[in-house]
Amino acid sequence: MIKLVLTDIDNTLVPLGNESATEHAIAGVHALLDAGIHFGPATGRDLDGMERFFRGDADCYATGLISNGKLVYLNGELVKANYLDHAGVERLCEYLHPFEDSFALLRANETDYTYSAHPDVLNKLVEGGVLDENTPDLEEVPEADIVACTVVCMGDEEKNKQIVSDLAELCPNFELLSPTTGVYDVVPVGWNKATALQHLCDLMGISLDEVCVFGDSENDVPMLKAVPNSVAVANSMPSAAKAARWHIGASADDAVADALFEIAEASLAGRLPSFMQ
Fold it and tell me: How far apart are CA 227 and CA 4, in angstroms?
């Protein structure tokens, strides 16, 4: 039986462009919780983002994998933190310094930071609402815990591939995972949503075959491969669709929300949901 459900957020539980999960999705989460099943996000987003996506309903993200699993929560408690190497982040940002169309966004000590040598790039980000005009630069990051680093490449595909290749060589202790075109989440080598999930399962005393996960993109692939009951939405990247065992409808159709209700109903009836049969 399923005892834990984790889902990616962007373009999986929450349709692309939506500010938050639908009422139907949040009701599905509570159907799981009422059935005695743990639920949580498995996302590259930070904890502040979860408050917005779940409309302030903390029960929906008391357990979960935040910042691609670098932060692991169980019942509202931080039970694992795997921060990024500060020196490695500095090397990464120094490499990006000459580029007019690439930059890094950082999060440390619950504060957002950016890095770019080109004011024009920063102005565009502020105008587009991506950054606040007072967002500090990397030089102001203290020697503290960097929980997230996202590399954004706005060049053509070949240039982006070269940047990723160069960074892999320059920062061998990091891995870059792409949730969407031109965006790369930086994680420690050997640590991702799958390894974070295993840590969470160990703490909960459950096995991976008692977990169901939902995803759509490259940074979900390790998790989708690790879990027997892995599910991809219809709008998934090919790599995620291939990695998943089960397949459901699109994020835009609230397919994950429907699946949450199915899992809760099936659990109470002592069976697996129909999409797993």
Answer: 11
The full DSSP string for 52-76 is HHTTT-GGGSSSEEETTTTEEEETT
Residues 177/239, Cβ–Cβ less than 8 Å: no
Which pair of tokens denotes residue 32? Answer: 């799981």
Contact at 8 Å (CB) between 212 and 263? yes
Kindly tell me the number of DSSP H helices and DSSP E strands found in the chain: 9, 13
Q: How far apart are CA 138 and CA 174, in angstroms?
A: 18
- The C-alpha R_g of the chain, in whole angstroms, comes to 19
The number of angstroms, rounded, from the C-alpha of 57 to the middle of its chain's C-alpha atoms is 19
The amino acid occupying position 271 is: R
Determine the average pLDDT of the residues in 196-221.
97
Over residues 168-192, the pLDDT tens digits come to 999 999 999 888 888 999 999 999 9
SS (H, E, C) 138-159: HHHCCCCCEEEEEEEECCCHHH
User: What are the Cα distances from residue 172, in Å, to 169, 176, 210, 225, 275?
Assistant: 6, 10, 34, 23, 40
Q: Find the helix packing angle between 23-34 and 255-269, rounded to 10°.
A: 20
Q: DSSP state, 44?
A: S
**SS3 of residue 90 by DSSP:** helix
